[in-house]
Amino acid sequence: MELPVMPPLSPMLAKSVAEIPPGMQYEAKWDGFRAIVFRDGEEVEIGSRTGKPLTRYFPELVAAFRAGLPERCVVDGEVVIVHDGRLHFEELLERIHPAASRVRTLAERTPASFVAFDLLALGDTALDGEPLTVRRAELVRALGGARPPVHVAPASTDVETARGWFSRFEGAGLDGVVAKPLDAPYAPGERTMFKVKHARTADCVVAGYREHKSGPVVGSLLLGLYDDTGRLQHVGVSASFPMARRSELVEELAPLRLDDLTGHPWAAWAEEDAQAASRLPGAVSRWTGKKDLSWVPLRPERVCEVGYDHMEGTRFRHTTQFKRWRPDRDPASCTYQQLEEPVSYDLAEILG
Per the database record, which ranges form the DNA ligase ATP-dependent C-terminal domain (predicted)? Predict the structure, then answer.
């Protein structure tokens, strides 16, 4: 492979801001795997955010890139899985599997798509030093005839359009808006873009905690919500605490600590069949590997308010932010019904 921009390459990143800034190019914030695609004839490499190749996990995209991308190019974008009108991040996670046969099966069952939003090289010309306005025009020209599963991300320079996207697109599984300076060159690994994400709060039951890697202090609180059957489902964690606060939490939670799991709603967390039937903490995956997933059980009697951006199915998509204890809330009242449900929006209307 001989291209004017070569792998590995760290993608340009975004920093969080509270409001959509004016005077920029706006795009939806895609919820997938960030990827930079390098194509030199038949040679294709899909680089991840960390620089490690994703190529073997998405054989259907390799074929699509050979058929639909310019002969020699470097394209920045997002690998996503789309069906039923929305994005499905959890199905992307399943792709990171050591067995090629499993990857092929999933590629046929839930094929991935690629949403392109930047062009870093075309032919023998490097474009990463050009302003975004030039790169965007070249992207649209070079990929204007692209067909699914390759798409060009919609973009606008109108801030009111971006605000409309922010409120509407969430129902299709997108989690915000990205704003890009119009005159900026591509800056690998630097946070020169801006992202605005949805912010909400929820009251959750604290039913356990994991110890911090540094020692016997709280590393993360394990959060639960009751489903329609009255079962407490594990929905995520809250983990960002100063070290002094981690020690204080051990003392605060000590009266709730259980010596064993008998009677605890997550007592069966180590059983594979139970993990398949319910959301429980401690499920081993390709991401956790041999990591210690043990946790300290607590009587599910305390409620805390947390901040979150959006849900992925029945769990919080990202780590939540602890806000405060809610001694006024009955744990039984902490159900999924309190969560705001975005208005459904068909992703096909975004991708065309």
Answer: 216-329
Query: Which of 268-281 are b and which e, b meaning 16 or more Cβ less than 10 Å from the residue's Cβ?
Result: ebeeeeebeebbbb
pLDDT band of 149, cuts 50, 70, 90? very high
- Give the tokens for residue 340: 């705001």
Question: Of the residues 198, 218, 234, which one is the last residue of a structural domain?
Answer: 198
Q: Which of 119, 123, 21 is nearest to 72 (CA)?
A: 123
Helices and strands (H and E) in the chain: how many: 8, 18
Catalytic site residue 197? no
Do 223 and 307 lie in a common domain?
yes
Domain around 278: 200-338
CA separation for the pair 274, 287 (Å, rounded): 20
Please check whether residues 100 and 239 belong to one and the same domain.
no
CATH of the domain at 275: 2.40.50.140
**Lowest-pLDDT choice from 102-111, 122-131, 164-173, 202-211:** 164-173
3-class SS at 185? coil
Catalytic residue, candidates 15, 29, 197, 213: 29
